[in-house]
Amino acid sequence: MKFTPKTEAELAEIVAGLQAPVKLQGGGTRAIGHSIAQDVLDMSGISGVVDYEPGALTLVAKAGTPIAEIEALLAAEKQRLSFEPMDHRTLLGTQGAPTIGGAVAANVSGPRRISVGACRDFALGVRFVDGMGRALKNGGRVMKNVTGYDLVKLMAGSWGTLGAMSEVSLKVMPCPETEATLALHVADAAVAVEAMSAALGSPYEVTGAAQNGPVYLRIEGFEPSVAYRLDALETVLTRFGAIERLNAEASATLWQELRDVTAFAGHAFVTRISLRPTDMPTFLAAAQAEHRFETQLDWAGGLAWLASDKESLADFAQSYCAAHGGHATRVKGSFESCAFQPEAAGVARLSHGLRQRFDPKGLFNPALMVRG
């Protein structure tokens, strides 16, 4: 059965009357993990921009609002979602339209995270329905919270396991006048991480540091400033290898492809792993001793996308992360095992307590983030 509420009141009524668990779905584009629920709670009907104040850099939208609609509205005012949410459709081969509620629920954050923060850092407020059918709200349209729980941050990254979001308030930012990218040819991942760290440690305000073949370093801002910073950063990086430049149009296209990991669309298994940048080369060397895969680095080496033809790589990545303080997610695969990194015992107790607080009947995306 599919439930399709059009308002928050309808959503609360549906949840209050549920007799079985449901799978929460927005645009249906992030088919990651497996929920044991048979019924679907389709949130796409709760859609529309509620309020947008360009001068205050704030936007309020219902959770089912397509991101494309929001981005078009912001672009007309030369503003944007600075956390650069990934579009998973090409990588996962899914249809539909990514929604803002789905992006917040999964804390979807792109390459610019290293310079401006994650999706949750731009979330000002949230409205949602908990597992008992109560409509709750937290935060507002300014960066201030006085409640016991910071529910805005709690909901961001919960993947719909704590409640069904009906509305989000976000901070937006102005678009830069232009951008450009340096492409640096390096020998290996260790040198790539060293070069990206050097760029980010410089005063030249790098807003993207990734590697897929070459190392790519993005600079944004006013045109004279970008030109000056490109020259200065190139001088810093010449010791690492040959450098090329990409102009604004080529740079924008490149970073969209890196954001959406389109290079790995043809692979059966894709794993996303987050570690300290300095630990990533050691992990990659250990993984390459036992597995064959392709790698795309982001966040200056703090994030790696691994594409392979065998799911055993994801098992290796999750085991490694458990021992070294990282996090590995099975983004694409069979999902016979839990997609998300198994939680340490203490964290698991906290997570269980939160689920008992907000969804005591286990209605929302059951077993999605824990091993069955």
Helix content: 25-40%
Q: Kindly report the average pLDDT value.
A: 93
The 3D shape can be described as globular
Rg value: 21 Å
The CATH class designation of the largest domain is: Alpha Beta
Unreliable spans are 142-148
How far the N terminus sits from the C terminus, by CA atoms, comes to 23 Å
Q: Helix and strand string, N-terminal first?
A: EHEEEEHEHHHEEHEEEHEEHEHEHEEHEH
Would you kindly provide a written description of the structure presented here, covering whatever features stand out?
- By secondary structure, the protein is an alpha+beta fold.
- A hairpin with a 5-residue loop joins strand 7 and strand 8.
- The strands form 5 sheets. A 5-stranded antiparallel β-sheet has the order 4-5-9-7-8. A 4-stranded antiparallel β-sheet has the order 12-13-11-14, with helices on both faces.
- It folds into 3 domains: 173 residues, Uridine Diphospho-n-acetylenolpyruvylglucosamine Reductase, domain 3; 83 residues, ACT domain (Alpha-Beta Plaits), CATH 3.30.70; 69 residues, 2-Layer Sandwich (Alpha-Beta Plaits), CATH 3.30.70.
- The protein is built from 12 helices and 18 strands.
